[in-house]
Design brief:
With 298 residues, this protein is mainly α. It is built from 13 helices and no strands.
Length: 298
């Protein structure tokens, strides 16, 4: 057999190349529980986007004559102590919860990735200073740190998002720093340095793309925790304004009527539970799909 024939035979015996997108989708949607979580997240996102079309009433419209009325054809989930429709407030509350989750996690991920990238790439004093600050922030539980920051900044939607973003930032910084430390000595990084590439170019073109996957998984998994934290702040009365429809605020308003009208607290509580479950399942699916050990597996 000639050399060309042997080469052709070796090539024919090689396993077929796996399409990365097909592999990703197959692993990501391989478990039904992940698909259920994805459907839940999509439903809540659509609900928040078209809330004015779905809500049967104005969420802040009061009707004191029908206060604390139970579920009926006019009000499927009843009304609160001010006669406001509970279903409409839950629908509009999804906007606040999802917006807080997206923006707070965006703040935390962006700031944390930048700090972690700088600390891991340059090392030295930049690593010591940044990581010790992150360690100090991580000494406080997320909800307590958010409470401390909101007490300094004051209440309001913007301050709540900033407070939650700062309290979530250490996790992203530490994960990014760990990824950078494992990537920066690879051959392609050393090759970039040898040809005179700037530090900024190496960080943006080579290190960051190869360190981003764990951050993406953490973003989806922390969305649920952030929404839950916002609900906790609203329940304590230091989150979003009282007049704004939020799930945590609705649970707080219905607390005094648990024995007579438990649906006032149970309905928004179930909404929080579902959206947190959905984001956690999506994050779990992304973790499996982006796992390097599963590459090449259909």
């Amino acid at each position: 057999m000639s050399e060309m024939d042997r080469l052709s035979a070796d090539i024919s015996e090689m396993p077929p190349r796996v399409n990365e997108f097909r592999r990703f989708m197959r692993v990501f949607l391989g478990r039904k529980i992940v698909l259920v979580g994805l459907v839940i997240v999509v439903v809540f996102l659509i609900t928040a986007a078209i809330a004015p079309l779905l809500a049967p009433y104005n969420p802040n419209e009061q009707d004191l004559r029908n206060a604390l009325s139970g579920p009926s054809r006019e009000h499927l989930l009843g009304t609160d102590s001010f006669g406001r429709d509970s279903l409409s407030r839950i629908i509009y509350g999804s906007r606040i919860s999802l917006m807080v989750g997206v923006i707070a996690v965006g703040i935390a991920a962006t700031a944390g990735m930048i700090l972690g990238l700088i600390a891991g790439y340059f090392g030295g004093w930049s690593y010591v200073i940044i990581m010790r600050i992150m360690d100090a922030l991580m000494a406080f539980p997320m909800i307590l740190l958010a409470l401390l920051i909101t007490s300094v900044l004051g209440g309001g939607l913007i301050n709540v998002m900033i407070a939650l973003g700062i309290s979530l930032m250490p996790g992203y910084a530490r994960i990014m720093c760990g990824q950078v430390l494992s990537v920066r000595e690879n051959d392609y990084v050393l090759a970039g340095r040898s040809i005179g590439s700037t530090n900024l170019r190496i960080m943006v073109r080579h290190i960051f793309p190869n360190s981003f996957q764990p951050i993406l998984v953490l973003v989806t998994m922390m969305m649920g925790a952030t929404i839950l934290a916002e609900a906790g702040l609203s329940y304590l009365g230091i989150g979003v304004e009282v007049t704004t429809a939020t799930w945590g605020g609705m649970i707080n308003d219905g607390y005094n009527f648990l024995t007579t009208d438990p649906i006032l607290s149970f309905a928004p509580g179930i909404a929080i539970m579902l959206v947190v479950f959905g984001f956690n399942m999506v994050g779990d699916g992304l973790r499996d799909a982006l796992d390097p050990r599963l590459r090449g597996v259909l």
